[in-house]
Queue: 2 jobs
Job 1
Amino acid sequence: MENGKKIFVNGSFLIVESIARAGADTFVGYPITPSNYLYLYSSKRLPLTFHAPDEITTLQWMSGLSAAGRLPITATSFPGFALMVESINMAFMMELPMVIILAQRLGPSTGTATCGASGDLLLVRGMISGGYPVPTFAISDFKDCWEIPEIAINTAVNLRTPVIILTSKEITMTNRSFEISSLKEIKKVERKFYSSDETYIPYKPEKNLVPEFLPLSSNKHQIRINASTHDQKGILQHSTKEALENSARLYKKIVSNIKDFTLYEYDEDGNENLLISFDVSSVVCKEAMKDLRNEKKKVSLLVAKTLVPVPDVYYEIISKYKKIFVVEENLNGQLCEMLFGNNIPDNVIKINSIGKMISIDKIKEEVRKNG
Amino acid sequence: MDKKFLNSNKLPFCAGCGHHLIAQNTEKALEKLNIDPLDVILVSDIGCHGIIDKFANSHTVHGLHGRSVALAAGISLGLKNKNKKVIVFIGDGGATIGMQHILEASRLDIDLTILIHNNMLYGMTGGQASGLTPKGFVTTTTPDKSKTRNYDICQIALAAKASFVARVVVKPDFSNIIADAIKNDGFSLVEAIELCPSYAVKMNKGMKISEILKEIGEEEFVKKNENYRWEFYTNSTENLFDKVKILEKKYEHKLEKTFCIQLSGSAGEGVQTAGEAFCYASILSGLSVNHRGSYPVTVGVGFSTTEIIISPEQDCTYNVNSPDIIIITSLDGLNVNIEKLKSFKGILYLDNSLETPQTEAKIIRYDFRKFGAKNSAVFSLFYILKEKEIYPIDALIDGLELANLKDKVDLEKFKQDLNI
Ligand code: SF4
């Protein structure tokens, strides 16, 4: 391996090549740092690129493209994502597959465009009116840049839903040497469209509570797509039983299928100290863990890659440990709040920073002090 | 399936509402053109006009307030079957909040037809004034008559290069205009003006649309412009890996453990590309590399920092506690590091022109700028490599080539100066 062929690229490069292989066929973009490399590479690699005049249009075009049978993606950062939120609600309600890559940067507001952060998790968790979860993954390293897009695309298609990939400036704009042979094969997603002669009911729950999909180009069946409260036929309703059940199904559809998209890394050593992290802070945790183990400390690590909804297995893992350290690059611990609420248990310690990556020493100090 | 566009004669609007006539004339137009309902995608949004869905035999898409034009544009761009007709029903409120989408669809002449149900106020939410409410019009939010003028949405669309624009006062039969709009192979906008009996008629007793139009200097018209053809932007690459340099080990290194160099200078002085060249050189010498840039948002002004981590291990760390060495080649580079240097304990390589900062570091000075600002960053890395002997100088020369820098720097002068 040591003498193998290497490339020197940033995380955006790997994400785009992988997502294209997985079947994404259209990029709709509006430039914003630190997602610009994703736009740049996508416009070279995806079959179609459209240049939207703003992020509301971006999400609306994507929804139209998706309803017409394409598989669109976009990449943005908080200011653009904020504009997309109403339209993501629409796409979620309409059940349109797509992937939105959110390259996080330092907030609040426009914050610092060229400074990394992991500060948008709670926004993503809470963005759907009614508290519905949109499947959300976080990229922690370059391996994830290659492997998560494929899972994101599959989740979007199989569950008929928008999917979010969280990443940050530290991945999208950082270059690394990379062994090409270490990349696993990416398979193109299989899309199955409704093919029966019987009347098509656009929101009738089928396997796994997911309705079958039919692009708007059909000459055989009438298709109704609706962003407002609607029945199985896609007809607007005030609050009939069927319509409310349909809305509730959107929640169940995501939560009951979580096993199909639960992704995490767990490195176990003893049951004393557990580091939990997501995004790029996970790689710092790995370095800290290595050093601490050299000091004969018992330290385990859970890298959360599926973040919304929270998989139950995280709680099973957490329950084994005496001390929990939640490490994340934001001010006050967003993953920690998602896992433990606002009244965190005494054995949970938050390790945070803003404006720079969390240092290896800081994690080591906290574990030595509290572990 | 019923061949008619509408599945009922009883539409869900108040008695006397012009929305009836718009829907019925759309049906007539489609019949005239002999278009099957399943070849129509009706996109509507929020407003009284939007509750039409249920009564249409076409495909129906019911979206967000004012966003229907953008949603329809996405559908139109995505359709592989170009025989489908995308028709948008939108109100004057939707046209106000979503005006950007109308401009964009006009500019790109996207193949769809929008019917603006312009009753000059928001009907569904209680008769408030919109951007298309004319001066002198009474609405629930302008009880003493509107003091502001309205947008001329037709002229706006024309200015944005829409290929078909018509303004019509809603009447029993204006289906020819809708048919022409649908036939147009590009963006068509029909502004259909009507009065909402539930609010406008009650509040503006006896007012006639013709009088309003006269007052604001607008009239009915149909204008057809040339269609604008553009090609979708398609990719030029089948595989991004084909476009990058494949790097194979060529030199030997002497590095025993992970080493981090931070180089700070000024934007425009080649700091990032110098870092890139050094990274290539390190990879050619069998090292693994992590390269991170840091700079203000504006490219070309202020500081520029490049952080290079190199490692003999197969997978380089993403982060270190502190760099082993910091090189500073300009005042911008010094200023941005003032705080960090106070506790920095490694080696600081400082350009001769700079004042000594407060630091715990060992300081080594050199004239890194002697071959000019553009050479300063690269030259400093040659200096470091000569001193540290991490790998052969030739690797860095190859690195310059890979970073397209070789012809841009004074390599011979570097060699002479450093006795290489
Ligand atoms: S409120 Fe006005 S616009 Fe709405 S249906 Fe009634 S008359 Fe028509």
Job 2
Amino acid sequence: MRVTMRIRRFNPEKDQKPYWADYTLDQVEPNDRVLELLHRVKWEQDGTLSFRRSCAHGVCGSDGMRINGVNRLACKVLVNALDSGDHVKIQIEPMLGLHVIKDLIVDMEPFFEHYRSVMPYFVNDDPLPEDGRERLQSPANRAQFDDTTKCILCACCTTSCPSFWANGDYVGPAAIVQAHRFIYDSRDNAAAERLKVLREPDGVWRCRTIFNCTSACPREIEVTRAIAEVKAAMRRGVKHPDPE
Amino acid sequence: MATLVTTVTETLRYRGKIGQWSWVLHRVTGLGTVLFLVLHIIDTSWAAFYPDLYAEAIAEYQSPLFTLGEFALIACVVYHAFNGLRVTLLDYKPEWWAYQQRAAAIVFGATTIVLIPTFGFMLSHVADFYGEDPDLVSVGDIIETQSQFVIGFVAIIAAALILSALYGLVSRSRSGFVLPGRLEAAMWLFMRLSGVLILPLVFGHLGMMHVIQGVFDITGGGIEVVGTDIVNDSGKAVEFVGARWDMLVAGVAIWRVYDALLLALVVIHGFNGLRTVINDYALQPLINRALNWAVVFGAIALIVLGTAALLEGVDETAYDIAVDINETTASAAY
Ligand code: HEM
Ligand code: HEM
Ligand code: SF4
Ligand code: SF4
Ligand code: FES
């Protein structure tokens, strides 16, 4: 099949403003991934096309971009999931809400700043258990935050959120997902401090329950649910199924 | 950090699912209703304070332009109410998130189901009205009266901007208007609680004013006023309001209590909603502060005005003046 790639290009050293450029590729297989098509454009037609990628297997979270209007990982989307037929058009642009450095590469620093603001690490200064090895946890308590451990920080969710587009100070769904992972961990002791950060006006209250983040997450994390659970933790505290 | 324009255009371009459109509609319908509410509370206060103006306002409500607006308003309130329930439900039952798309579709369906018979009743009121070959207020007159509101809003916002600029100079503050986190949490809760309370109140109010009787029956002479056992002898709008506010059940003026509840809940809910929208898009500190001040001032002013009208009521003199003035203007005009 033939594919026309319509890509949003921008080189701050040369261009006044971003523009659309078309690249036509032949002999594309329906089960090619969009990342492979981007490679072909870069390797066969225009070496200046810039984008991030690393693992190419949906693990590192570096190739989040807007593909046919929706945020996804280029390495996880097959052409046949977008369209079928002899001639397919695919539109690709950078994620919105973060500053574009070049072509599809955005400045992730504000995103990581929000990530760091929720203390995304395990906090527990209690003495180690008797055997000095492991802080044990019941399966039910572990299950409480299982979903939010899957996040790969690709920013697909945060940059799909109209609240974040409007106001980059909103911590955004990814940071809340990360906070959820620790707030609901029965072994962690810093839930109160994280909730304090998220209770601020730029915290969870900016979420309007739009669900764009949930549909965008390539890891199928139930993002909006996690956000609602964090809001619930603010109202009635964190409860774990089993006593520790 | 996209600009306001990009945010709006990209919201339309981003291919979010039904949840995104539910949110856009929730916002638009909420804002539309707030706009109406501001005019409505000011108008209604005239029934107590400027009966002649009230008669004119109701005459404008009965003009074709406002009839169109009335249909839109009803659609806005019904959709917003049902979607508000959906949002509240998902806030309290996060584990139901998987049904959110279906819930959004149900909201659209339920809105349609409620609107069809409602519009049917409203259309029959409209048909009755036009069957009697009524006198209509001209579009020119409507623009003239309503433009005064626009001037008023612009003046308030301009005043707020000037005050905010002065405040900025004196305090050297670089931040907008920020509620402490705890208050923000309280308002979040209030939005849900008040929404659930407003729903029956506003549906009841709209039921009385649009289904059981129509906007046109407010000036219906010889008709028993909805929710009362009092007949509107003169067919004057102020008598309609007076009848409702003076209707006593076991010594309690039930419709005044009802209106007071509706007034307080809806104004705080609507204006807090306005505040969240402002804080999403108006980030420049000077402007943010000014608009927030205008919102706080506006909400307080409307509650004071509405309460004053409810306390004052429509007394005999006001009613007589209205009859007089209407007769003189009527004979002068026609
Ligand atoms: C075109 C549609 C509407 C009509 C014709 C209408 C009619 C009236 C009338 C005649 C009154 C006078 C008091 C009474 O009879 O109880 C009133 C009061 C009131 N209405 Fe409406 N109404 C409409 C829509 C709404 C909506 C959508 C809301 C809520 C958002 C609302 C909120 C109120 C409040 C708060 C009062 C009390 C005002 C005060 O205390 O001064 N109305 N309305
Ligand atoms: C009839 C029952 C109502 C219910 C159940 C309801 C529910 C809600 C809820 C839950 C929200 C919060 C949405 C969020 O934070 O994501 C909201 C927002 C809002 N409501 Fe209502 N509401 C009702 C009536 C009204 C009325 C009568 C008005 C107008 C006076 C109004 C104006 C607004 C506005 C302007 C917002 C802000 C929208 C936004 O942030 O996008 N609501 N409503
Ligand atoms: S659910 Fe909340 S965080 Fe997710 S896209 Fe919507 S507003 Fe943004
Ligand atoms: S929650 Fe999902 S979409 Fe958001 S950063 Fe993590 S993996 Fe990416
Ligand atoms: S390249 Fe690593 S997730 Fe796509």
